[in-house]
Design goal:
alpha+beta; Fumarylacetoacetate hydrolase, domain 2; 5-stranded mixed beta sheet; 6 helices; 29% strand; binds 2-oxoadipic acid; binds magnesium ion
Length: 262
Amino acid sequence: MKLDQTTIEKLAEHLENCELNAQDTPKITDDHPDMDWEDAYRIQNEIKRRKLARGNRIIGLKAGLTSWAKMKQMGVTTPIYGFLSDTFALADGAQCKISELIHPKVEPEIVFVTKAVLKGPGCHIADVLAATDFVMAGIEVIDSRYRDFKFDLKSVVADNCSSSRFVLGSVARSLDGLDLRTLGVVMEKNGQIVSLGAGAAVLGHPAIAIAMLANHLGQYGEEIPAGSMILSGGITEAISVASGDAIHLRMQGLGSTSLRFI
Ligand code: OOG
Ligand code: MG
């Protein structure tokens, strides 16, 4: 813990204003090079507190940078964790307004919904499989508040891991007879395939991302409550979108979901 509470609150206000006003900013570690991991999550928590105070609801959690494709794209090696506000949720097939965003990108994600509490430390893939109610297909729209999407891990954690919008499909499947490692993923932009992958791209099995999230929260005495919706992280590298683009995601056995950017 290197930053005082006033600085944490100032940085959270700044980053959230950048989100709400679609304005970019240099990464915060430029001015606060001593900031540590705890500070980064304190800033993210303060952004969460601001949203709750405004009447927003927290409706899910996410893991990010859980695939090699994403780690390579962003030049980092550690997963990160964030939260999803109700203001991020879009309906399947909805229009996503580019004017509310800075430089959005889309990524295909396997989404977990749980039916039992997951608590670390020591949370394991088997715990996650046992606690999974069903999985769904999801597209996450990420929109780093940092100029040109350039950041280090602490800056991006403080910025709630670039969270901005997401959409879920309408097929919910239990894990019975579903092998998430070999589950195929095809994402199209304007009818052309832009991403191809399989679930194993996320840490060998996307349930591992959920276990890591539980273990991360366990450090702070927190848990993943039953009934949580969790994005397990982009399977392929994120794809830039512009006004007019239509994104369509198909996931094997999980149907499809789409977004249109206007
Ligand atoms: C950070 C957010 C990463 C994912 O699924 O990997 C993320 C970023 O790449 O801006 O959501
Ligand atoms: Mg993501």
